[in-house]
Design goal:
By secondary structure, the chain is an alpha+beta fold. It has eight helices and twelve strands. The strands form two sheets. Strands 1-2-3-4-5-7-8-9 form an eight-stranded antiparallel beta barrel. A three-stranded mixed sheet has the order 11-10-12.
Length: 508
């Protein structure tokens, strides 16, 4: 399972890394230098136009020292350090100028305890151990120098600080030698098993010898995740009970060489993209070039060349923006040249000015609409066939705004007090119907005058007297509005007549 995961990870890393860049062209003059790409021409970062070498092979050797374990290499027991040996080889792929992926193989041997297992035990209680290991890991490589560096065209560099971190599988054979001078195999872990996973991280300092070779010193810290790596035997053995840590970890200091592969002048990890920007700025600053402005002229004479004029037929005298488009400050569709109200939106037909609403005319229109409102006989209940007229009246008020007083009228026939009450209730009913259609409750009020303003005599026909049965509408100014009540009557329940009980006959 672990082998399959490692193969998959490598398969994913290689094609994604293939998009790093190579260097091709060579320019004249002082450019390139030690950190440049070798090209004064900036080309797109694509796989088809590689400009940098991005593969390399690294080898190195060093000294591992067990630091966190029951048996350590650093002044353990006899106060001396026990040095082992290690070596590594890796295939390195640069993804960008600041990040890469390495597939690395490590082999080595740590020595730990009171004495070197090549020597005899100094006494019967002394314990020495050695561990032979093989490891395969995938490491992420961050070029901190390229991340943090800010250069100009005169600042070449040959040093680079790198950071590494990754996981892998480690196999080992741990041997122990005690006072009996017998050397025994204590623990053996095969590769690609659950217990063989490990983690390592560290830093490296690279020096660029030439375009092909780098020298690097590394210091890595390896976390084995295993309490038996130091040769102490079973995790619950007497030796492994000396300290509480559950992972035997070691430092690995190495010195190595990196061989950069490829046919081009420079490796992407030694390139800073900012340098090319500085170079191009220098070239432009020192380059004399005649620039021809307005090749196509300015046909509409608006001060914007036709090369980038988005409105080639701007009217004479109109102010324009940087793209040659006539200004329309209030965005009402009428350019400022023809707009008589430049800062206030208005319709085209009114020369860009807003239409002033006549609320008195609105009152006339609403009254005309309410002319054919029908009520049930002798009641203030509006009949259903009046709904369409009410809808139209509500839409007119919504569109034009204003405060309105609705007055109810009756004809002269009938009891005057009764007619007055009926006119008040009907006017209030119309107001309520309009408010139910979305009119704000603060813009409509009602009153009734009964037959006080009737003009048709009682002797006239019913059809003639209908002219006096109406609802009139009047626009009211704000100064007068607050002095008018919402309606001019109080709701009161109708009292039913009380029937007297018949008197009982006296018995004779």
């Amino acid at each position: 399972m672990k082998l399959s995961l490692a193969i998959v990870a490598l398969a994913l890393a290689i094609p994604s890394a293939a998009y790093a860049q190579d260097s091709t062209a060579v320019s004249n003059g002082k450019y390139p230098n030690t950190f440049s790409s070798g090209s004064a021409n900036v080309t797109p970062f694509t796989n088809q136009s590689k400009r940098f070498n991005d593969w390399s092979v690294s080898v190195g050797a060093g000294v591992p020292l067990l630091q966190s374990a029951d048996l350590t290499s650093i002044k353990n027991g006899n106060g001396k350090n026990l040095f082992g040996y290690s070596a590594y080889v890796s295939i390195d792929k640069a993804i960008t100028h600041a990040f890469g992926i390495n597939l690395q193989y490590d082999r080595g041997e740590t020595r730990q305890g009171w004495f070197n297992t090549k020597n005899a035990a100094p006494d019967a209680t002394a314990v020495g151990a050695r561990t032979q290991y093989d490891a395969i890991s995938i490491l992420g490589d961050i070029n901190f120098s390229n991340l943090l560096r800010r250069v100009d065209n005169h600042s070449p560099y040959r040093w680079a600080l790198h950071g590494y971190a990754g996981i892998g599988t480690i196999a080992y054979r741990a041997y122990q030698k005690d006072g009996s001078n017998r050397q025994r195999l204590m623990t053996e872990i095969k590769p690609f098993e659950l217990g063989s996973m490990f983690f390592q991280a560290g830093t490296g300092l690279k020096f660029k010898v030439n375009r092909r070779i780098d020298i690097e010193g590394r210091l890595m810290y390896v976390v084995t995740g295993d309490d038996e790596f130091d040769g102490g035997g079973d995790a619950y053995s007497a030796i492994n009970k000396r300290s509480e840590q559950v992972s035997d970890n070691f430092f690995n200091a190495t010195l190595g060489l990196s061989f950069k592969l490829g046919k081009h002048e420079s490796h992407v990890m030694w390139h800073d993209p900012l340098q090319e920007i500085y170079y191009k700025l220098d070239v432009l600053a020192n380059k004399n070039q005649d620039i021809e402005v307005c090749k196509k002229g300015d046909a509409d004479n608006d001060g914007v060349c036709d090369d980038w004029d988005r409105q080639l037929d701007t009217p004479a005298g109109a102010r324009v923006d940087g793209a040659g488009v006539a200004l329309d400050t209030d965005l009402d569709g009428v350019i400022d040249l023809y707009d008589k109200c430049v800062t206030v939106p208005g319709p085209v037909e009114n020369n860009g000015c807003p239409v002033v609403k006549d609320n008195k005319q609105t009152a006339v229109e609403v009254e005309k609409t309410l002319k054919d409102i029908y009520f049930n006989f002798n009641k203030a209940t509006i009949r259903p066939e009046s709904n369409e007229k009410l809808d139209l009246a509500a839409s007119i008020i919504k569109e034009n705004g204003g405060n309105y007083l609705l007055t109810g009228h009756t004809d002269i026939k009938g009891n005057a007090a009764y007619n007055l009450r009926l006119s008040k209730e009907r006017a209030a009913a119309v107001v309520g119907a309009l408010e139910n259609r979305g009119i704000n409750q603060n813009v409509l009020k009602s009153r009734g005058v009964g037959s006080a303003e009737a003009t048709i005599p009682a002797s006239a026909s019913d059809a003639e007297r209908m002219a006096d049965r109406k609802v009139t509408v009047r626009f009211v100014e704000s100064s007068e509005w607050d002095s008018i009540k919402k309606k001019d009557y109080e709701d009161a329940p109708v009292k039913k007549a009380v029937k007297k009980a018949p008197a009982k006959k006296k018995k004779k």
